[in-house]
Amino acid sequence: GAVVSQHPSWVICKSGTSVKIECRSLDFQATTMFWYRQFPKQSLMLMATSNEGSKATYEQGVEKDKFLINHASLTLSTLTVTSAHPEDSSFYICSARGRRLWDTQYFGPGTRLTVL
Amino acid sequence: DAKTTQPPSMDCAEGRAANLPCNHSTISGNEYVYWYRQIHSQGPQYIIHGLKNNETNEMASLIITEDRKSSTLILPHATLRDTAVYYCIVRLLASQTGANNLFFGTGTRLTVIP
Question: CA A38 → CA A10, A20, A72, A89, B73, distances in Å?
Answer without folding.
Answer: 14, 17, 25, 10, 24
